[in-house]
Amino acid sequence: MTDLEQARALTERLRRRFHDRSGIRWAIERKDDRSMIGTCGYPVIAAAANRGSIGYELARRAWGHGFATEAVEAIVAFGHRVMQLRRIDALVMTGNAGSTAVLRKCGFAREGVLRDYALFNGRYHDMEMFAHLHRDTTGAGQPPAPLA
Questions:
Q1: Whole-model pTM?
Q2: Which residues have CB under 8 Å from 42's CB, separation 6+?
Q3: What kind of fold does domain 23-138 have according to CATH?
Q4: DSSP string across the chain
Q5: pLDDT at position 10, please?
Q6: Around Cβ 67, how many Cβ atoms within 10 Å?
Q7: pLDDT tens digits, residue range 97-141?
C-alpha cells in the first residue's frame, strides 16, 4: 500500500468479510515488542461445505524464526475446533520451499499441482495444493469437538 486510503479500503473489505463470515484475517505480532510482522487467516471460508483455505505472509526479516509455523498451527486449530472445518487447504507457488516446509511441519499433505493456476506480475504460475483434514489429526470421521 502506498497511502492511507488503500489501508482503509482493505480494512473495510476485511471487516465486511468477517461480518458475512466469508473470511477472517489476523495480524501476526512479535511477542517481545508487539510489532506487526505479517498476517494470516482464512481468505476463503465455505461454511456450508465445512472447509476453508488459509493464507499467510511475513515480512522478510521474520522468515526462518518459526513465526509462520506458530501462526499456521494456531489458525488450523481454530479452524477445526471453533469453525468446525473438516478440510483446510493452502496453495503454495511451486518452488516456495519455505512455505512448503511450514505446511508439512503443521501436518498438511501435498495433494498435487494446479498448472498455470495463479497470475502474479503478469505471469502464470503453477501452485501446489496442500490440505489438512480433521481426521488426519484425530483419526476420526466425526466433526471436531468445539473448544470448551
A1: 0.84
A2: 23, 24, 25, 52, 53, 54, 55, 75, 79, 83
A3: Aminopeptidase (3.40.630)
A4: --SHHHHHHHHHHHHHHHHTTS-EEEEEE-TTT--EEEEEEEEEEEGGGTEEEEEEEE-GGGTTSSHHHHHHHHHHHHHHHTS--SEEEEEEETT-HHHHHHHHHTT-EEEEEEEEEEEETTEEEEEEEEEEEHHHHHS-SSPPPPP-
A5: 84
A6: 21
A7: 999 999 999 999 999 999 999 999 999 999 999 999 998 776 554
